[in-house]
Amino acid sequence: MALTYKQKFNLKHGQPKDKSNSLSQIAKLSGFSLKGLKVVYRKGQAAFKTNPASVRPGMAQNQWGMARVYAVVDKSSKAYQIDKVHF
Q1: Mean pLDDT score of the chain, rounded to an integer?
Q2: How far is CA 47 from its chain centroid?
Q3: What is the reported pLDDT for 27?
Q4: Three-class DSSP category at 85
Q5: Quick one: how far is CA 43 from the chain centroid?
Q6: How far apart are CA 15 and CA 40, in angstroms?
Q7: Closest CA to 71 of 30, 35, 28
């Protein structure tokens, strides 16, 4: 099974694979600005609300926002290419 962006992030930074991180922890470890990560988080939450058909069943709005953050800090993801102008 493939690793999630969160799991890749945690392994890269020497943390337990399924550890949850706050936005400030992610900013500190990744080098991205906290302000920029907050923008990405809010965009993820907005995407959850505006396109509920694309959301996996049982997923919460805050989980969708954090998933987008982890995808953006994984610089190899397409999400980074789209959102890098915000940093």
Answers
A1: 86
A2: 13
A3: 93
A4: helix
A5: 10
A6: 23
A7: 30
